[in-house]
Design brief:
By secondary structure, this protein is of the alpha+beta class. It contains 13 helices and four strands. It has helices at residues 2-19, 30-40, 42-55, 57-63, 112-178, 184-219, 239-249, 251-271, 323-389, 395-429, 435-438, 448-455, 491-494; strands at 68-77, 95-108, 277-288, 304-315. Helix 4 runs antiparallel to helix 5 (112-178), helix 5 (112-178) packs antiparallel against helix 8 and helix 5 packs antiparallel against helix 10 (395-429).
Length: 509
């Protein structure tokens, strides 16, 4: 377990300190977001509650094989007697109080109890894997939301720069048109490009607001100055390696396989309904006629009495209308369903793992090509502006070069987001992206074994649990998000597109 945990634990314990030595005050790291989600997200807390309910199925199943004690009592008042001297107060005393107790000890139940307990225990194990899967899914969603905010903030910043540059360029183009250096077509081109840039900025801003609200939904608080996350370690070298690990450790697959295994015991429980059942029964009775027995006869008789009984109770089913066979067939059909669902889970894990690996690799390739494109487009924009200054390039050429640089930068930040999210999803598919793997230290980690060990052997009829209360935090008080960003502007893009008009031609001598 230690070998599997250590790489990602080093990632979030030490990696952040290396990549971000002095984070700004109030800034959030990816680790902060994961800790908040782990402690306050209602989805994972609901799954923990569901697992605690699942734990109770073991003592419930075991209770059928434990002794049971019943007590009953009654009081009878004889309100009407037959008239005449023949009335016999011995046969119909005026009143009677009774009490009885019975102890029943199951001896043989055809294996129903044993198999029910085994099925419940296997399902508890499956529930723990389901809880692991919920953790992995939540953390993957948090990483996606975290990277979405970073990506969309960068895109909004790039588009704001673009609008600023194009706005300055439009004003310069209008000024030059007034003095006859440019044509109306040049002004129209600048005006049209600015309008398009503003619409792109509006779209980017709406996506940023949506990403921030989604972050709040998962983490429970607004994103503040999100820091660039550290690199993901211990990623597989091939899709086959990833699949091999996933088939062993993926929690969703393990849960489906254990649910399948539990149904085998369900079939045996159903078959036990056709077998005899034997119990040891011990009972005691008490009666009291309250002085009414033999009243008026002059005969003194005892008014109270006790009795004790002990014996065996044997039940042999002979005919139950076909119900046992129907229950066996139903259990067998449900086992068939569980077998197919386990196979489907296996297929899904293989597909998800290979897909995540492919997206991760593809995004890495896109990052490399985008970095090359950004560098090339920077040089191209600088060159086009220089050529425009001597009259060899038009305003449209500059606008196109600036748009190409913007597009390549957007592609780069998008690919960086996709690569990181796909890499984390790959770790999650391999079963290595849960709280214990990440080394989260925002308090003690939730251990489902604590509740299971507390309740599995409890036999008290009065051992209620704690009154449920909300653990997940509400986001009612969080402010509505906006699209404001504080990212530094690219110096190249803050330069107006057209600030240095071409020199007027020199007349030949």
């Amino acid at each position: 377990m230690t070998d599997r945990i250590s790489p990602l634990r080093r990632l979030l314990l030490g990696g952040v300190a290396v990549a971000l030595v002095v984070p700004p005050a109030g800034a959030d790291t990816l680790r902060d977001a994961l800790v908040k989600a782990y402690n306050t997200n209602p989805t994972i807390n609901a799954q923990r509650a569901a697992q605690r309910a699942n734990d109770e199925n073991v003592p419930i199943a075991r209770a059928s094989g434990l002794p049971s004690v019943d007590a009953s009592g009654g009081y009878t008042e004889n309100l009407a007697k037959s008239s005449g001297s023949s009335s016999n107060s011995f046969a119909s005393p005026a009143r009677q109080a009774t009490g009885s107790t019975q102890l029943s000890i199951p001896v043989f139940s055809g294996g129903a109890v044993r198999n029910s307990v085994k099925a419940a225990e296997v399902r508890v194990d499956a529930g723990r894997d389901t809880l692991r899967g919920t953790e992995g899914d939540l953390f993957t969603a948090v990483v996606g939301a975290y990277m979405d905010v970073i990506r969309d903030e960068a895109i909004v910043s790039l588009n704001e720069q673009n609008v600023h540059v194009l706005d300055v360029n439009l004003q310069a183009s209008k000024d030059r048109f007034q003095v006859g250096d440019l044509t109306r077509t040049d002004v129209a081109q600048s005006d049209a490009r600015l309008a398009v840039a503003r619409s792109q900025l509006q779209t980017a801003q709406s996506r940023l607001i949506s990403s921030r609200e989604n972050y709040i939904r998962l983490v429970g608080s607004p994103p503040i100055g999100l820091e660039t996350p550290p690199a993901l370690p211990n990623l597989p070298s091939s899709p086959d390696t990833a699949v091999d690990v996933a088939l062993k450790d993926n929690p969703s697959l393990l849960a489906a396989q254990k649910q399948r295994d539990a149904t085998r015991f369900d079939v045996d429980v159903a078959r036990s309904q056709r077998l005899p059942k034997l119990s040891v029964v011990v009972g005691g009775n008490y009666y009291n006629y309250l002085g009414s027995l033999g009243a008026g006869t002059g005969v003194r008789v005892g008014q109270t009495g006790t009795a004790a009984t002990a014996g065996l109770a044997l039940t042999v089913p002979l005919f139950q209308g076909g119900r046992p066979a129907a229950e066996v067939r139903r259990a067998q059909a449900l086992r068939g369903e569980a077998i197919e669902r386990a196979t489907d889970a296996e297929r899904t894990v293989i597909s998800d793992t290979r897909s995540a690996y492919a997206v991760w690799q593809s995004s890495l390739e896109v990052i490399a090509s985008s970095q090359t494109a950004v560098a090339a487009n920077r040089l191209s924009l600088e060159g086009v502006r220089a050529e425009n200054s001597v009259g060899n390039r038009t305003i449209l050429d500059i606008l196109n070069a600036e748009q190409e640089l913007l597009n390549s930068q957007v592609t780069l930040v998008t690919a960086q987001r996709d690569a990181y999210v796909a890499g984390f999803a790959l770790l999650a598919a391999m079963g290595h992206a849960e709280a214990r793997d990440l080394g989260l230290d925002g308090g003690a980690l939730y251990d489902p074994m604590v509740n299971y060990n507390r309740v599995r052997h409890r036999i008290s009829d009065w051992g209620d649990g704690q009154t449920p209360r909300a653990v997940g935090t509400s986001t009612v008080g969080t402010p509505a998000q906006n699209a404001a960003v504080t990212t530094k502007l690219d110096p190249l893009l803050t330069t107006p597109v057209d600030t240095d008009p071409p020199n007027p031609p020199v007349a030949p001598k």
